[in-house]
């Protein structure tokens, strides 16, 4: 089984003066502005790194949710924040890190089992597998037993 999702990007003008718009198949993003100013100057709009962070956060959190359900847990909450690090390298840029910060409440679960499930989700969610950078996991809070 293959699931194919898509997004489109348009860019009018070139370089710093250019303006782009990105849309997704679902409509979650529809002609969302992006460009140099939204990427490097905190202007309103989105940027590729923010979109990667959203994809990684949602993918990891869902993978962990399913992993915990497979272990027999049915109640709890997970909140992930992903920080993507973009660094200047020569004339270009590279993404060097995706840092997952996780807050979780899983009643009845012990910390060691939770950490094992979280690490497994980090290693095996499809977006983690896609990224060729250092992917870290920081469980900032956990409530269980």
Automatic annotation (TrEMBL):
Positions of transmembrane segments: none
InterPro entries cross-referenced by the UniProt entry: KH_dom-like_a/b, OsmC/Ohr_fam, OsmC/Ohrsf, OsmC_Ohr_Peroxiredoxin, Peroxiredoxin_OsmC
SUPFAM superfamilies: OsmC-like (SSF82784)
NCBIfam families hit by this protein: osmo_induc_OsmC
PANTHER family: OSMOTICALLY INDUCIBLE FAMILY PROTEIN (PTHR42830)
Record's protein name: OsmC family protein
Organism of this sequence: Rheinheimera baltica
């Amino acid at each position: 089984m293959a699931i194919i999702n898509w997004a489109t990007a348009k860019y009018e003008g070139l370089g710093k003066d250019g303006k782009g718009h990105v849309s997704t198949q679902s409509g979650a993003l529809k002609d969302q502005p992006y460009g140099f100013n939204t990427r490097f100057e905190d202007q309103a709009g989105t940027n590729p790194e923010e979109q990667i962070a959203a994809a990684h956060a949602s993918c990891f959190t869902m993978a962990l949710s399913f992993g915990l359900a497979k272990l027999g847990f049915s109640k709890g909450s997970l909140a992930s924040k992903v920080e993507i690090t973009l660094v200047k390298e020569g004339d270009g840029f590279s993404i060097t890190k995706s840092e997952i910060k996780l807050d979780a409440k899983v009643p009845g679960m012990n910390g060691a089992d939770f950490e094992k499930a979280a690490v497994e989700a980090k290693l095996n969610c499809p977006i983690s597998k896609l990224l060729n950078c250092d992917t870290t996991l920081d469980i900032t809070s956990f409530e269980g037993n």
